[in-house]
Specification:
With 130 residues, the protein is mainly alpha-helical. Helix content is 51%, strand content 11%. The chain is globular, with a radius of gyration of 16 Å. The protein binds zinc ion.
């Protein structure tokens, strides 16, 4: 028997939100065939075969689940080309890139309840789009 059963751990909540938020971002930019273009190289992929790329790193919780900071990105751009951050920002436009850069430097602490609220929100959005 696990000691503190039932209540999900913080890291599990974060992981769950990352998964559902990633699905949301990829679906948000896909067409009615489920095809979506990589934000930085513009190659087209089925939404399940692409990733959720972050302009400002996932290390910052302030922008980790900010829709303005995230776009679909292929594995190559996101992982092997280190997110192509410069091109990513250029395509976002100077104003938004600057806004995300500043926001990412803020220290934001979400409570577990706030994270669970986000999971619920994005779960229903994903359900609506699939
Ligand atoms: Zn790409």
């Amino acid at each position: 028997m696990p000691k503190n059963s039932k209540k999900p751990t913080r890291s599990k909540i974060v992981k769950k939100l990352d998964v559902i938020f990633s699905q949301y971002i990829r679906l948000k930019y896909s067409d009615n065939r489920g095809m979506v273009k990589c934000w930085t190289c513009e190659r087209e992929y089925f939404w399940k075969n692409i990733q959720n790329g972050h302009f400002q790193s996932r290390r910052s919780y302030a922008t980790r689940w900010d829709e303005n900071n995230c776009r679909p990105q292929c594995l190559k751009c996101n992982m092997y080309d280190q997110g192509r951050q410069y091109e990513f920002g250029l395509k976002l436009g100077e104003e938004l890139a600057q806004e995300m850069h500043l926001k990412s430097q803020q220290i934001v602490k979400f409570t577990s309840d706030e994270l669970i609220e986000k999971i619920d929100h994005y779960s229903s959005e994903v359900k609506r789009m699939t």
